[in-house]
Every structure is written in C-alpha cells, then in structure tokens.
Amino acid sequence: MTTRELKEKYLKFFEERGHKIIPSASLIPENDPTVLFTTAGMHPLVPYLLGEKHPMGNKLVNVQKCIRTGDIDEVGDDWHLTFFEMLGNWGLGSYWKKEAIEMSFEFLTDKKWLGLDKDKISVSVFAGDSEIPKDKESAEIWKSLGIKEIKFLGKNDNFWGPAGQTGPCGPCTEMFYDGVEIWNDVFMEYNKQLKIKSQKSKVNDEYEYIPLKQKNVDTGMGVERTTAILNNKKSVYETDLFLPLIKLIPENAELDERKKRIIVDHIRAIVFLISDGVKPSNKERGYVLRRLIRRVVSYEYINFRYLVATETAFSEKLLKEVVKEYKPFYPELNLNIIYTEFTNERHQFLEKIKSGIKEYLKIRGEGKIDAKSAFFLYQTFGLPFDIIKELDPNKTKNLKPEDFDKEMQQHQELSRIATAGKFKSGLADNSEQVTKLHTATHLLLAALRKVLGEHVFQKGSNITAERLRLDFSHSEKMTKEQIKEVENLVNEQIKKDLMVCCEEMSLDEAKKKNAMGVFESKYGDRVKVYSVGDFSCEICSGPHVQKTGDLGHFKITKEEASSSGVRRIKAVLE
Ligand code: ATP
Ligand code: MG
Question: Domains of the chain: which residue ranges?
Fold first, then answer.
C-alpha cells in the first residue's frame, strides 16, 4: 500500500462514519507566536477543543503536515522524521472512548481497510496516579476487542496536556504494531484548574482536575510509519517514499546510511518550510531552516570533496522529486521559490567554508589536524567538524568527535568565565543547574514586567546551583496573587518548550529591538541578544538552555525588600 492509498482510505473510512474532511493547516501556527511549528493535527484545532464551535461540525478528519524539531537528534533511526504527515480524527463532544477505540481497531484490522494482524497489535493505557484515576474504561474496551497485550503507563507516556499550565487534558491510549508506535487516541476529559481556597495557603500544589463538560477525542496516526508497517518494512526510510530519494545520492564511502537518511529527511522538511514562507535566518524558524540546509550542504560537500558543488549537486534533484510527490496534495509547493532560497543559502554557506578550507590546507601543510586546530577552523571559519574530518580522512584518522566536543566545552567555559567577569552576569558557575536558573531569570523578569508593569528593570542578579536571586525596581510588596500569576506565566513558557535563540548584533540594533539590558554597564559594540519565543528578549552573555522545556517547574520561594524602591525575589526550579 502506498502513502497515497493509506491517506485516501483513512479519509474515506472516517467520512463514511460522519466525519467532515478539513484541510491541512500551515506549518506556521496562526495566532500563536509562541510555538515554532505545527507538531500535530490537533494543534490548529485547539480553540475547538476548548469549546469553540467548528464550522464543519463535531466530527472531523484530516491529513496534517507536521514538523518536530524536538525529534531532530533521533532522525536517521528507523522511525523518526523531522517532517511527516499525521492522520487525525476528532470527536468534539460527539463520540467517546468506546466509539473512538472501536473505530481505530476496525480501521487497523478489518480486511476492507488496513487488514493488520490483530495479534501483533499491542496498546498502552494510562495507569493512573495520585491525582487522576486509572483509565480502566479504555483497557476494558481493548480487552473486549481481543487485544492481549495492554501496558499501563504513567503521565509521561499516556497523558496529554494541558497545553499551558491549566486547561483541557486527559489520558491517551497508544497503539503499537510489532512494538512500533503508530497511532495515539487522546481523551480530553479533564480541565486542570487552579483550586479555589479560602484559607491562607502556600503557593504550590493548588491545581485540581475537574471533569470537562465537552469531552473530546483527538487522534494522531503517522503516515510514514504506518506505510512502512503495511509494507513489512523495518524502517520508514525503506518505503517507496524514501528509497527513490536515497538512490539519488551518489555512492560514497563517507556518506553512510544514517547520513543519507538525514539528507532525505531534511530535504523534505526544507521543501515544506520554504513553501510555508520560512526564509533562512539567524532567528527562530529561519534558524531551523538554515541549520537543515547547512547540514545537507555539508554532507553534499563532503561527497564532492574539493569540488564546490554546483551543477552536480544532488540536493536539487531531491528537492524536485519531493515537490513532484507532494504537489498534488499541497499546491503551495513552488519549485522555483524552493530552488532560489535553497541555492542562495548554499552559496552563502559555501563561500564561508571556502576560506576555512584554505586555512585548513595551510594548517595541514604545517602538520596534522588535531582537535585544537579543528576547533579553531570551526570557531573562526564556521567549518563544520564533519567536513574537517572528511576532507582528508587519512590525516584526520585520529581526530575524534569527543575530543572536538571537549575543545568546544573548554572554550565555552573560558568565554563564560571571561564574560562573567566582564559583564558581571552574576553567575556562580556554569553548571547545568545554574544555566537553567539563568534562563529562568530571564523568564521571571519578563513575567514581572507583564504582571507589575514596564517600570520593572533588573537591578541585580545572583545565581547559585540552588536558587536564583533577582533584584528589580518596584516599590510595593507583591501580593500573593501577583506572585502566583508570575509563577504561572513562567511555568506556561516552560510548558511551551520555547526555543532560546541567541543573535549577535550592534548595541543600537539591540535597543531598537527593545532588548532588555543594564545599559549603564559597558557592553561592547556588538552584543549577544537572547530571546525566548516572543516572551523575553535580553542583552546577555549567556549561557542558556536551548529550550525552556528543560527547566522543570518554577517556584518563587521568597519576595522581600532589598533596598528602597527595589524588591528581591528568590526562586527555584524543582
Ligand atoms: P514516539 O514516542 O515514537 O516519538 P510520540 O509519542 O512522540 O511517538 P505522538 O505525539 O503520539 O507520537 O504522535 C502521533 C503519531 O505520530 C505517532 O503514533 C507516530 O505514528 C507519528 N509520529 C510522531 N513523531 C513522529 C516522527 N518524529 N516521525 C514520524 N512519525 C512520527
Ligand atoms: Mg516523540
């Protein structure tokens, strides 16, 4: 079965059962500047899951294009892609667990539809915890259908949401074939809310789960994974969707299977990102696109060694193939625009690494290339490690990625110490915990300005591995409600798993961007500006975590006077 047939069958199955087909939304979420990309079919439907009426009714189905940057490190394994299509059906207050699970089961196993072997299907169900009961209902339904292997898992695996600190959420049940997850049915049945308490209480543990009036079903099935399963393949990359693409990459000992998989995965993501209006840049979505393109170009460059790849480049053939495959479903794909953006970025990148190669040849003439010189080439010319390694494999046999990483870490440490001294950023050390608390301090300052007002500026900061301390301009004691609101705002940003982006620019540019900064202190001509989504933007020397999702739970432990007109907050990450 081809992916096209799978998609058609899925839509037909649910259409016959009263669902209306809705179009795939853009990869760039609308009205939601805080999230980079659409990561699932439910994403564009959030308002309707929250109770808004959908113009097409209360049973919906579609094929949604998705990008998951969070999976990038897993790309090249058997089952993960950066770009993929997700099939989804939704019941908005219309049907519930029994109908949803029975439909999933019928679609998977009935000969008329996918006809998969029932005995190879296993499922997982929410195990329950101190706050929410076990999802016995789903387990019973699966049992009645004859599914033998039912695993019970906790919140991390089998519970969805809420998207923010509060809101709709509920247990889910995942379906596996031969151990590979292909489909997930989410049952939104609770509303996570702040508890209303009459007595004075501490500012944590104040949530409760109230059963929702409108219960929603939200499901997601991966097109590529299911196609692979249906064709008895051991990986998405072995399907007809990827094999012809992989074949377009010329044989080369330097490009192993994993790298080839990464190339074709990235090419697909590049095609769809450019088509939804993303341009390569140093920021957010543009930065993701830039990294994808540069990785492909690096591998391509390795393939051609000293030739600066132009007409012979295979990436263009790949772009063309992907557009050909998807154009019938996604008319927004425009090969000319894709070529232009891709080629411009490639050209720029190759220009940059060319001077690096010149320097490389000079160093090689003087002796062998070791981790130190490799790092120098990377640091000064942006020459990627992979390219350094592959340019002249004989000379770089002993050059190990671990040693290169060590150099990089050492350098970061040195520059941290240097910048800490220079900018008095108030960091005690650069441990992981301190880095996290540092990012949390940025979120805290932004949240304080939102809750208390624009008169709030940073007056001082001190971070240890245990806690952060922030002094800021504000003359009254904060109320309990204000503290709670600030905490919630920070935790919402953490939940959203926002990217922390760093950009270098002139001080004037930074000021124009309204970046927060301690302007009395002496910055250089060029400064680093760290932004967290659209939530926070500060001149800062770093270091920071890459994504806010790494922070854990934020809690204010103390709010007190520091000096006249200055308050002091201490906070922790739990
Ligand atoms: P996994 O744990 O395998 O990464 P997940 O729990 O993140 O999967 P969901 O968020 O439930 O997956 O997404 C629904 C479906 O989308 C999955 O069952 C799978 O078929 C598909 N899917 C999710 N992530 C990817 C990916 N990176 N590449 C291809 N398909 C994916
Ligand atoms: Mg995942």
Answer: 3-235, 243-409, 432-573
Q: How would CATH label the architecture of 3-235?
A: 2-Layer Sandwich (3.30)
Alpha-carbon span 544 to 402, nearest angstrom? 22
Of 295, 288, 287, 289, which Cα lies nearest the Cα of 341? 289
| 226, 6 contact by CB (below 8 A) | yes
Q: What are the per-10-residue average pLDDT scores of the chain (574 residues)?
A: 96 98 91 78 85 91 94 92 98 97 98 97 96 96 97 94 79 97 96 70 68 93 98 96 93 82 97 96 88 86 56 82 95 96 91 81 82 86 78 79 84 57 43 88 97 90 87 94 97 93 83 74 69 91 87 95 90 94
Q: Find the DSSP H helices in 367-431.
A: 371-381, 385-391, 401-423
Pocket of ligand 1 (CB under 6 A): 40, 68, 71, 80-81, 84, 86, 181-184, 220-222, 224-225
User: What are the E-state strand segments in 99-166?
Assistant: 121-126, 150-153, 159-160
- Confirm if 556 and 570 have CB atoms less than 8 A apart: yes
Indicate which atom in ligand 1 lies nearest the CA of residue 39.
Answer: 10
pTM of the model: 0.70
Tokens 């989410």: give the residue.
186
Distance between Cα 308 and ligand 2 center (Å): 37
Rounded to 5 degrees, what are φ and ψ at 300? -65, -40
The answer to whether residues 444 and 567 touch, using CB atoms and an 8 Å cutoff, is no
Residue 5 CB contacts under 8 Å (≥ 6 apart), including other chains: none
Which ligand 1 atom is nearest residue 220's CA? 14
CA-closest residue to ligand 1 atom 23 = 222
Spatial CA neighbour of 303 closest among 260, 239, 252: 252
Which tokens hold the place of 71?
Answer: 């999976």
Q: Residue 180 CA: which ligand 1 atom is closest?
A: 3
CB 342 within 8 A of CB 315: yes
CA of 184 to the centre of ligand 1 (A): 8
Question: Residue 69 CA: which ligand is closest?
Answer: 1
Per DSSP, the residues of 13-25 read HHHHTTPEE-PPP
Atom of ligand 1 nearest to the CA of 157: 6
What number does the ligand 1 atom closest to the CA of 86 have?
Answer: 16
Mutate to test the pocket of ligand 1, among 6, 155, 184 (most ligand atoms within 8 A of CB): 184
Amino acid at residue number 243: L
Question: How many Cα atoms occupy the beta-carbon half-sphere of 148 within 13 Å?
Answer: 4
Ligand number nearest CA of 74 is: 1
* 33 preceded by a cis bond (ω within 30 of 0): no
Q: How far apart are CA 58 and CA 311, in angstroms?
A: 52
CATH superfamily of 432-573: Threonyl-trna Synthetase; Chain A, domain 2 (3.30.980.10)
What own/partner pairs with CB < 8 Å and gap ≥ 24 does 203-209 have? 203/480, 203/483, 203/484, 203/487, 203/555, 203/556, 204/555, 206/484, 207/166, 209/131, 209/132, 209/169
Which helix (DSSP H) or strand (DSSP E) does residue 451 occupy? helix 432-452
157 C-alpha vs ligand 1 centroid, how far in Å?
Answer: 12
Between the CA of 117 and the centroid of ligand 1 the distance, in Å, is 21
